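We emphasize that the prediction below concerns an isolated chain of 284 residues; any contacts that depend on oligomerization or on bound cofactors are therefore not represented. The input was used exactly as deposited, without trimming of termini.
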Amino acid sequence: MRLGDQRESSNIEDRRGISMGGAAGIGGIGTVVIIVISMLLGVDPSMLLGLANGVSQATGSQSQASRPADPNDPQVKFVAQVLGSTEDVWGQLFRSVGRQYRAPKLVLFSGVVQSACGTAQAASGPFYCPGDQQLYLDTSFFSELSGKLGAKGDLPRAYVIAHEVGHHVQTLLGTTAQVEAARRRGQEAGRVAGLLMELQADCYAGLWAKQADLQRGILEANDVEQGLNAAAAIGDDRLQKMSRGYAVPDSFTHGSSAQRVRWFRQGLTTGDPATCDTFKDPNP
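Result of the prediction step, given as a token string:
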């Protein structure tokens, strides 16, 4: 990816290396199944962590100290540039329909973090919390992405961030509230609505890449292939086969590899939010 002159976002809070009292009880979930199934893209990973290890939900954001992100850290620079690009793209799209985009803050952490959605470990992967409208990322996840999942390259890393920003867009547009209402109607209704929300966030991630490329020419020759490979790598069917040897479609929460590739490609091809309405597609 060509991000050389891309503006860096200032909406980054660095909590890396800062200890969090009372977090020791979260241990014991560092298995492949938890790492890969909750990787990328959970709106509330603490729910999964709680099921696995009895972690109680917190009601407010953690009062942790933070420091300015180091602009000389290559990982920080990459994250800041991608986040800045999402702000530019979504800011323009919101203005085009007469609305103002409120950019989220991205919190960098290491090991464990507290959000308005509860306590989460790095093993839960990057996530977005609608309660405080913040993104949370332990950059060590990028090593998991390129290593265990085989999704190498810049666009897969950017896809992670853009997908979580997609969840923020859903919160601003009211989609998240609709999905929460579906979850209150029943377990299966909630699972299906959540799956459609994840696929829409995949489409929004592809949309960001398309629009950013139109604005600043960020994509290089292998980026698209690497991005599609990342979408395939995190399909529920592939992750379940990695962890248990077989897939159970009725338990999918994020979509199969084919579904995730389809919707990421949809956004990447069209760059149009109107084409990302997974909720109206009879065969998502």
